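cron nightly-structures :: item 1 of 1
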Amino acid sequence: MRKSQRLTLSAVTAGLTVLLVGGVLAAPSVGATTNALTQLVKNPGFESGATDWTSSSGVIGQWGSSGEAAHSGTWDAWLNGYGSSHTDSLSQSVSIPAGGTASLSFWLHVDTAETTTSVAYDKLTVQVGSATLATYSNLNKNSGYAQKSFDVSSYAGQTVTLKFTGVEDSSLQTSFVIDDVALDASGSTPSPTPTSPSPTPTSPPPTGPERTPAKLAYTVNLTSDSTGANWSGIEKIDFTNVSATPLNEVYLRLWDNYHGSCPTTQPIKISNVTGGTAGSLEVGCTALKITLTTPLDQNQSGSVSFNLAIAVPSGSDRFGRNGSYNYLGNALPLAAIRDSAGWHLDPYTNNGESFYSLAADFSVTLDHPTSLLTPSSGTTTETPGSSGRTVTTATASKVRDFAWAAGPFSHSGTTSTSGVKVDTYWTSGVSSGSAASIQDASSKALDAHGSRFGAFPYTQQDVIVDNTFWFGGMEYPGFVLDTPSSTAAVHELAHQWWYGIVGDDEYRAPWLDESFADYATDLYFGRTGSGCGITWESSAEKLTNSMAYWDQHSSRYGTVVYGYGKCALHDLRRILGDSTMANLLTEYAQAHWYGVSTTAEFKAAAQAKANALPTPVDLTSFWSSHRIEG
């Protein structure tokens, strides 16, 4: 269930520019059969020297004795590292079969003599054809290798050149070391539509021309104190204006300043902004306008960066501290959306969520005491830091937010039947038996939701269990907070699809994720939604009301948005039939994969299914009786 649930659990049971995919397990679209994956890169680990590669002199070699050991074997590709103006390149032409999926991956190690923590002096770009997939720099230095992965399915049926280009400035070396490059691809052939389709789209739908800034990439480097409650460092946001209207400014949402006392106490502080000029905090200190140094016309790109300080307040909350356990939900400043309605600068709500963001890519480095575990969004790797410290690097692609926790958690891991790694963390107040139960339910729920709405597109899911939360649970991409309740776990994981993968404006249309997540929870537990009694309290009460209404009528929020919402979807299922309803949700999710759902679009999709029934049905009266407007 969502943060909004001040309800009891019984109420619920009743009712760099990195485009990482993190190892997508992509299934085909409905009506296709995927062939086995084939690795297309020749001499992927350079163990045959420069064979099949085109590179600058002195790039491919056995560099272990020079301090640049291979990730595997003894050969690797070492770009730059001269400490003077220099450009190196490495490339190979690859033909990707048509009709399937494709994923590019490689292992990257970066070391540098640069001491700056804010300026990218030396850069490595990764390209497929003429498109740049990623840019790394001296700011991405790490002590070991980190795997980078990209979905390149949009190039299926083409012969493209994979290219790495390193550019070094006039002083202080930076080395970019690459190994074990792979491009795994599949072809597909037509086949009958499966009874229980579970397609996973391999690329997001185009961002609507009115939703900007888009093509967002967040690069974050933070260091904590000994408790994990205070963090400081640097955040950079790269973005593109996809609107025909020039972008003169961006707004950052500092959501967790709601938990302070505006304007005197701010848990989230930004300083030393580059790329623009910061204005005054607005909307209860949760919004900050940055006027760009250079306005952006359509398809032009820019960036802003700033120093970031986070202080976690006391109190067991999605952003809060329970003893030695720290929860950092919504702690990272995110870019607000400007669309046809203007800038979305809605206030924070503690009943539900106000969050509305586009799918983005995150590269987050957390330097913390080794005694603290840091479950987070994304796929993580750990390397030793300075004495008694660990550096956790997390990469998350096509996600709407990034959250983490820090504390002396107990930990257990498993892998779901479909191959998703499920890591469970729990506090000292939760028994290992309860944690094991939640882990089992989480693993099964991920597979069940995936079979209904499309295979889970990420490789890792973290589940954090704390018995002191005042709410039932809270969802973030790849990271959920739960009380020791299987129902809460199943509901929060349904939000990985309904909010995470299929986004929505959570402030203005909360039913689009809450109702759908609770409906998915019912399906998991085999509940039919029979006997739903809907009694409207007033003519103003509607399922599609915004959080502005529900904040004024908080006692009805759970009843209507959760209870009446899932009942509406059960009733729609009874009109369309089980199979048609299942296909509707699968196809609707696929059409909005990494995109944004609206009430009008869902109504249109449902009506199209109703029109295709042997006896077509006009859903006008259904929408009216269930008060679904828009």
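cron nightly-structures :: done
Residues 1-35, 188-206 have pLDDT under 50 and may be disordered.
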